[in-house]
Task: structure prediction
Amino acid sequence: MAAALRSLLECSALVWRGVAPAAAAKPGVPTGFPELDRLLPGGGWPGGALTELISETEGIGEVSLFGPALSRVSREDERWIAFIAPPHFLYAPALANLGIDLARIVLVRSPQQQDAPWAAEQTLRSGAASAVLAWLPAPNERMLKKLSLAAEAGRSMGVYFPAAQAARHATPAVLRLRLSARGGKSLLTITKRRGGGECAPLALDLGAA
Result:
């Protein structure tokens, strides 16, 4: 009984503890994974804020994790979905299979790595994008604070993908996640969120997404 109560207090986004920050005031964008929505304040990806996803290795479902949400906003929001400096070429048929309207996608390539944060900040702040996904190999706290303020100003869902070693640094992102792969399953760990702490890894079938 005690263990079950402790798990509920630590991992349920529906329970607020007096020592913890208040839960999200605005509804989030549904992730497409009900078991994940139950753990997130607002019941989905935070809008007007930053989410950090640290992936153990490339190509284990980083974009697919956000696929259902991007599909929703591409149909319900007239603004763009921007991909900033992805490490590989985007495969349009795969994005279409996720249900994303390709006509709403903007791809920004950065000849110089240091230009990617500037492009992400300008896109977030413009208010012209419903979602911005940016690959930032070496983000620093000052850069991320600027991106966080830009996401708030532009009312955009901001997502950034740092290198794995960035996990050692603090971040103003309101949601911090780690993605790994074990036995054919994708394991998602919430390491930071509003109103709660870290939870046990959640097994998701990102292929089904």
Remarks:
- Confidence is low (pLDDT under 50) at residues 2-10, 16-22.
